Amino acid sequence: MGEPANDQQLLNPEACAMRERFARLLSEFSALAGRRSPTRAPPETRIQALLEGFGQLRKLVVPRELAQAADDHETIRALMMGYAEAVDRYCRQQEKDADDFNVLGVMQLTGNEVRHSMVLAWLLDHDIRKLGTHAQGNLGFRLFLNAFHLPCHYADCKYWVRREVPGDVSKVDVEAACRGQFLIHIENKIWSSERNNQTGREWSDLQRQAESLGVDPGHVRAFYLTPDGRKASNATFTAISWGRIARVLEQFADQAKPGM
User: Fold this and answer.
1) Which of 178, 211, 243, 252 could be a cystine partner for 159, CB 3.0 to 4.6 Å?
2) How would DSSP label each residue in 117-133?
3) What CATH number does residue 244 fall under?
4) What DSSP state is assigned to residue 221?
5) pLDDT: which is higher, 114 or 157
6) Is the pLDDT of residue 22 over 50?
7) Which residues have a Cβ under 8 Å from the Cβ of 202 and sit 6 or more positions away?
8) For residue 140, what pLDDT is reported?
9) Residue 123 shares a structural domain with residue 65
10) Alpha-carbon distance 236 to 229, whole Å?
11) Contacts (Cβ under 8 Å, ≥6 apart) of 109
12) Is residue 2 domain-resident?
């Protein structure tokens, strides 16, 4: 039988140290050959003894390493089989109900903040001539107000919904407001994070706009919308998650009716 393909991979630290010692002895062989001492064994004898010791050590090391490799192979094989079975179960489940299907993912829009904001504004708007093309009136806004414990009468006034609303020092993603009644700003973040005290600047703009609209401070709200509901740097923003918005959309789908 031939030698293993890569001896270095089969040797443990003790064998590696022995190999290094052997290499040093070989490098000194020529010097030792010219300085034989009657009290020391000849270099040839010492090298032969070293080779014999190396051979004995290898006989001990190689089977041990091969046994470990066999154990590792069996562990990896079991993991791969488990993975293949899990994938097969997942595929069968998706064939049945496709609960992981995401049309936004198919369209590569899952990380697009602008598109998400468009969906949210569409849900909240009551005006079919503008963003509320669902023709369900204020249903979506009423469900939103209920989900986030806001006064339900906000939905009864002539409110508006706008996107990308500029202020003096910031721009908000979604705004819902009614003069003299309420003002709501929603900052939407998907994968990006805040920049340069963003929510602090938005809150300043929100206060100025509320004053110009004659909205009482008690009816001014700011939301920080993210996939995981993380907090904004400005504590006046209420952190909400897209999971909660998704539940509002589900309620909207259940309650929506033609011809409202």
Assistant:
1) 178
2) HHHHHHHH---TTTT-T
3) 3.40.1350
4) E
5) 157
6) yes
7) 167, 170, 172, 185, 187, 222, 234
8) 96
9) no
10) 15
11) 115
12) no
Q: Looking at residues 40-47, what average pLDDT do you find?
A: 72
On whether both 237 and 147 belong to a single domain, the answer is yes
pLDDT of residue 50: 77
Structure tokens of 116? 């998400």
> Of 206, 146, 196, which Cα lies nearest the Cα of 173?
206
Cβ contact 181:159 at 8 Å: yes
- pLDDT of 50-109, one tens digit each? 777 777 776 766 677 777 777 888 888 888 888 888 888 877 776 776 565 555 554 555
> Is it the case that residue 3 has pLDDT exceeding 90?
no
Exposed/middle/buried for 47, CB within 10 Å: 0-12, 13-18, 19+? middle
Say if residue 166 is in the same domain as residue 250: yes
42 and 166 part of one domain: no
Query: In terms of domains, do 77 and 28 share one?
Result: yes
Number of domains comprising the chain: 2
User: CB count, 10 Å around CB of 45?
Assistant: 10
Q: Do β-strands 160-166 and 171-178 pair in parallel, antiparallel, or remain unpaired?
A: antiparallel
Q: Residue 26 is part of which domain span?
A: 7-97
| Residue with the larger pLDDT of the pair 260 and 152 | 152
H or E segment at 54? helix 43-97
182-188: strand order across its sheet? 160-166, 171-178, 182-188, 220-226, 238-241
Q: Indicate the residue among 97, 125, 140 that finishes a domain.
A: 97
- On whether residue 260 sits in a domain, the answer given is no
pLDDT of residue 33: 55
Residue 107 structure tokens = 């369209």
Domain ends where: 40, 63, 97? 97
